[in-house]
Amino acid sequence: MTSESNQLRPGSTLDGKYEVLARIGGGGMGEVYRVRHLHLDEVRVIKLLRADLASSAQASESFQREARLATQIKHPRVATLHDYSRLADGSFYMVWESIEGRDVDQWVRTQGVFPIEIAVPLAVQGLSGLEAIHHAHIVHRDLSPDNVMITTDARGHLGMKIIDLGLAGDLREILAPGGDPHGAVGGKINYCSPEHVGLVEGVRPDHLSDVFGFGIVLYFMICGQLPFDRVGQPSDIKRRFEQGAYPLRGRSEVEVPQELSDVLARALQVDRSARFQAASEFREALQALASGGNRQPRPRPRFDIDEPLAAAATALRQRRFDDARSLLDELSDLAPADPRVLQMRAELDEVRSTQRQIQVLQMREMVQQYLQARHEPMARAALESLLEIDPDYPEREELERQLEALHQTTSSGRRARELVDRVRRDLGRVADRPVLEEHEIQQALAEARAMHQQVQELEPVLAVKLAGEIEEWRRSQERDQVILRQKQTIRDLIEARSLDDAEAGIDRLAELGAPQVAVDLFRRDLAQLRRQLARDAKIAQIEQELPQAMERGALAAARELARELQNEDPSHPQLRGYLRQISQAEERATRDASAKEGAATIAALIEAGRLEEARLALDVLRRIAPQHGLIPHFERRLGAGRR
Prior knowledge:
This protein folds into five domains: about 15-95, Phosphorylase Kinase, domain 1 (2-Layer Sandwich), CATH 3.30.200.20; about 100-290, Transferase(Phosphotransferase), domain 1 (Orthogonal Bundle); about 305-410, no CATH class; about 410-495; about 590-640. The protein is about 60% helix and about 10% strand. It is of the alpha+beta class and about 650 residues long.
């Protein structure tokens, strides 16, 4: 990676564990790459903060905010954030799951609009993901066709995933007095709700805005058009909402049920109170359509929250913050929009924020004391504790600079870090070998642990981290060796034709966490072998039955068996011989039948005294079967007839 372009080259390694496969996009705040996790052998996607923004406190804060919000969402219909970290040069990166598929905009442009019977179930999936986002007190604020992915599973079934939380916000902050403290909200103007563009006084984009945005996405999926006129200039914004959404019926190439048009009309209401009040209501309305019913979405059950609310208030007064948060989490599930719940959560956050500020000040003072005493290990430990409390501490870079300056003046620190770097390089080189023997692993571990002992004497805090890295490397190699042995066991079982044992071995390989592609290849090879063995068995049976049929004179059965053999193995070495023998036998059978019939005819003609006709028939018999046993007999009788 170069500081000028922040570009990563294919084949390079990021943070010691991600191999860069290809750059797949860029723009906005980050560069996006497809990578492979070196230890897990899994393809993922990395979003790296652009180099020209890495020094911007606002950009770094926004980037980290996206990551913090994303980690709160765990749902199969929302893109998963696997990792978030900081590189040695100070830049940040996020690691997302790799989603194979196309976004809705690409799909419609290349495949055309979605049939209603496909669009509605997909939208139900997407809305379940949106529910999970809202349940985590997060608002997406940028739902559009290019932020909704369409995936295909191994069975060919389509699925939907919501991606890109770059403009997401915390619903509790949005609804709290004073609004969202993180500035204005962006978004694509043609997919914005009225709240996005300030047409609803005093209201900022919230979960109802996401309902509106998802309605536009579904509308676009069905007819390939937007429900409102596109915005060409600022004056268009207000007019497009005054006119309202165009009804879906009449804008689609296919007949749209009135009920579906009505559901989308409700989702796209400019009047917030007339919209679905939750993603779950929108989803239930679509599910009712999909099931053929006309039921309305179930109203949310009402709960008495006074008692748990009072218990949360008591816990807050007594400074039992964990108890208060647990109670408020339960209340948020029961009454997510209740102003009392939101107000108390805001109070709890304020108290905890104050408490955290006090802890930060205390740790800041401790860091300074250790720096002045030139006690690097304790200063480093105090700084790490400070950053655990506040990862975005504004003086972080300055304190790290002072700590690094102290470190550079400490020979033991330099030596310790040199040893750590050497351990990492050595272990990395060993792990990169295509074939790794057990004794090589043990030798590498022994050398690493010997150097760890030296680091322990020089810098105990750093030694703790190094010990963890060595242990992680050992577990990774141990797992890889187990997987390699299991692969060889499967190969031996397949070679020995122990197919059921081989199949059990493949299941065990999957349980060990082997790459899915390796498991799939073994399953494919096993299936091919099963088919081959079945084919060989059938050919062997034919090879046994066909000569027996010919020996019995069952030529029709023999001919059918030969056809089966030709279907199974057109290049079978005996196939042509079998066909030739069958044809010859069929010819002999035909001649024998003709000769038998001819002999009978001659005998009948002689008995009837029709000797000339008998002689002509005898000539035919001589041509058909010159060795026929009755020819001499007929010749004698016909010769006597001449006399």
